[in-house]
Design a protein that fits this description.
The chain is an alpha/beta fold. It has two domains: about 15-110 and about 185-330, Isochorismatase-like (Rossmann fold, 3-Layer(aba) Sandwich); about 115-180, no CATH class. The chain is about 35% helix and about 10% strand. It has helices spanning about 25-40, 60-65, 80-95, 135-140, 150-155, 160-175, 200-210, 250-255, 270-285, 315-325; strands at about 55-60, 100-105, 120, 135, 145, 180, 220, 260-265, 295-300, 305, 310, 330. Helix 9 (about 270-285) links the parallel strand 8 and strand 9 (about 295-300). Helix 1 crosses helix 7.
Length: about 350
């Protein structure tokens, strides 16, 4: 085991009661605080870390983590994402001297994407309601079609678009993915929902200033023709003609391979986190299954999608994490002593 430093105290500026709120981070004040904190606790620049630790934060954005926003991950408790982020912030502060780099992903959308209502219409021109599941059978029967106005706006031939939708939904089915889900408009680029949770942003900034570590922000999900739950690859890579529409995030995969340990947290456990880890597992299996031991899942800093009286992904998410553990990955709690394997 790698002997980690003793956990640091929580800086006095952190207020757990504000984690579920949106507010402006006082950058200059936090920069000064971080510098003083670094001197007080003898924190060294991250570039000198002998054991390099990456913290991958999946979509810790307002749209998923703040109550009343579009896709708040309430879990079964109803407040899950807020509780997750309280623990996450504390984890970052306690382990400032251990975490080498933080990599936050940003789910990034606009209105004209395949999983938004505007993209689809029925024979009467009506759009599907949010949380509608669009199956391959629905498309074959003509229940849902591509909105020709959206196809025109995107510069896509309508016939091609219809072929693509049939291909896309079938590929999801064949690949064992979730059916195409019509999500509420969320994580809209440039909007408040797209931003990181204020308390987490503050913790990332504090870490950056205290350790001279530049966070590596990863934008995902902005291709109009495919969902992109995983930060490592979109749900579908090719169109019905076998032409590439999007590719894997090779740069991030290569970066992750350079670290001695990778910690993963974020939202939602059943979707973007699960698919990210599943894609990572596939890459590891193809390269060297032993590398799975480098992956640590902060299970108390992530929660599944639960929509009361509609759908509950808790059991599916738990089963997925059990499967990851079976491959050699570690399921850990942020509140427990941190021990990382060499």
């Amino acid at each position: 085991m790698f002997p980690t430093q003793n956990p640091l105290p929580i800086p006095p500026h952190f207020d757990p009661k504000r984690v579920g709120q949106v507010w402006k981070v006082p950058y200059q004040n936090r920069a000064e605080d971080a510098r003083n904190w670094s001197l007080e606790h003898r924190l060294s620049p991250a570039a000198g870390d002998r054991f390099r630790v990456l913290l991958l934060l999946v979509d810790v954005q307002n749209t998923f983590c703040i109550p009343e926003f579009e896709l708040f991950v309430g879990g079964r408790s109803g407040v899950a994402a807020v509780e997750d982020n309280r623990r996450l912030c504390r984890f970052i502060y306690r382990h400032l001297g251990v975490i080498t780099e933080i990599c936050p992903t940003l789910d990034t959308h606009d209105a004209m994407q395949v999983f938004h209502s505007l993209f689809l219409v029925d024979d009467n021109g009506n759009h599907p309601e949010p949380f509608t599941l669009v199956t391959a059978e629905d498309v074959k029967r003509g229940r849902w079609k591509v909105n020709p106005h959206v196809a025109g706006a995107l510069g896509i031939d309508t016939h091609y678009a219809e072929q693509f939708l049939a291909h896309y939904t079938q590929r999801l089915r064949d690949g064992g993915k979730y059916d195409l889900t019509v999500w509420p408009y969320h994580a809209m680029f440039g909007g408040i929902g797209h931003s990181l949770v204020s308390a987490v942003e503050e913790a990332i900034f504090f870490h950056s200033m205290a350790r001279y570590s530049r966070p590596d922000f990863q934008v995902k999900g902005n291709h109009p023709l495919t969902e992109n739950y995983s930060v490592l690859r979109p749900e579908v890579l090719e169109d019905s003609e076998g032409k590439s529409i999007a590719g894997k995030n090779r740069a991030l995969l290569e970066k992750m391979a350079t670290f001695d340990a990778c910690l993963i947290a974020g939202q939602a456990k059943s979707h973007c986190v699960a698919w990210t880890v599943a894609d990572l597992q596939n890459e590891i299996t193809a390269k060297d299954p032993a590398l799975a031991k480098k992956i640590y899942l902060l299970e108390d800093c992530t929660s599944p999608v639960v929509i009361p009286d509609i759908i509950d992904y808790t059991d599916a998410a738990d089963a997925a994490f059990k499967g990851f553990e079976d491959t050699g990955m570690h399921r850990i709690q942020s509140t427990e002593p941190l021990s990382l394997q060499l």
